[in-house]
Amino acid sequence: MKKESVAQLKTELCEDDVAEMRRLQNQYLKKEGLVFIIELRLKELRLKNLYTIKEIAGVLGCTASLVSRYENGSRMPRADYLVKLADFYDVSVDYLLGLTEDKERH
Question: Domain named HTH cro/C1-type: which ranges (predicted)?
Answer without folding.
Answer: 42-96
